[in-house]
Amino acid sequence: MNRPVRPKIARRLLDGVLFLDKPLGLSSNDALIRAKGIYRVKKAGHTGTLDPLATGLLPLCFGEATKFSQDLLEADKTYEATMRLGIRTTTGDAEGEALETRDVRCDEAAIHAALEPFRGEIAQVPPMYSALKRDGKPLYEYARAGQTLEREARQVRILALDVISIALPDVAFRVTCSKGTYIRTLAEDIGERLGCGAHLIALRRTGVGALTLEHAVTLDMLSAATEELRDSWLQPVDTLLSTFPAVHLDAECARRFAQGQRLKLSEIAGAPAVAERIRVYAQDGQQLLGVARAGEGVLAPERLVVVAGA
Predict the structure, then answer these.
(1) Which contacts (CB < 8 Å, 24+ apart) does range 37-44 have?
(2) Where is 252: in which H helix or E strand?
(3) Fewer CB under 10 Å: which end of the chain, C or N?
(4) pTM to 2 decimal places
(5) Measured between alpha carbons, how far is 134 from 144 in angstroms, rounded to an integer?
(6) Tell me: the pLDDT tens digits for 222-278?
(7) With contact defined as beta carbons under 8 Å apart, do 277 and 241 qualify?
(8) Which among 15, 21, 30, 51 is annotated as catalytic?
(9) Annotation marks residue 51 as catalytic
């Protein structure tokens, strides 16, 4: 019996960044696959995972933008979260089973005071239900098998931590933190400081570095939109690099830079003497050529963008 041949989907060459508002219950990879299929784009990647129980900003990189996704992996993140006091769970969130129930006897003043020690540099023990690996296997696999392994505390940075609202036993808060911070663990640790325990019941990411939910779209919006409208929602590649200083090269320097050649800083107007990351453009300011480092009198290409038609 011959199986019907499925028509091959024509993949598109698209460069840009999509600010996706990830829905509840979907993994970051599943969200990426859906968006990639809707756009029919050849190359795509995301910029750091969000748990299925978390919603919010998931920047997706298409085409040449994938070269710069690592920059967002390193960026600080902002979340709005809700923790429920009085109950500890196996996973630290609402997905787990209850381990312990305690009375909630704290007031608003105590809750505000309990947040203070968690601002700044703190030590945090990663949860067993996490993707961190031990001997090549993620910790959550050990946890599901009923094993608890020793984990070393890691230094993370809490740049901002504020209460949004209190409706006991629930407390909503906003946190801006360094990469590698577990908000579930933060909620559990705050609960322990209050003497009643806690677990996370809601989590929404509202910011990644300088990026926010302002221009984010949902998968439902993408599915319902025309191709022209969907394409208009893509942000330019250099959206990921907005915090870096910029230089503009004349035609000859741009040609040499695009070939991977180092340039003398004395040839480039306005170039900083030292900088770890610099956005490099052609002189018209429209075409991003790539990212470079400056130092020891030279501008050294780090990552180059393939210029259409070049």
Answers:
(1) 38/219, 38/222, 38/223, 38/230, 39/12, 39/14, 39/222, 39/230, 40/9, 40/10, 40/11, 40/12, 41/11, 41/12, 41/13, 41/14, 42/11, 42/12, 42/13, 42/14
(2) helix 251-258
(3) N
(4) 0.87
(5) 14
(6) 999 999 999 999 999 999 888 888 999 998 999 999 999 999 988 888 888 888 889
(7) yes
(8) 51
(9) yes
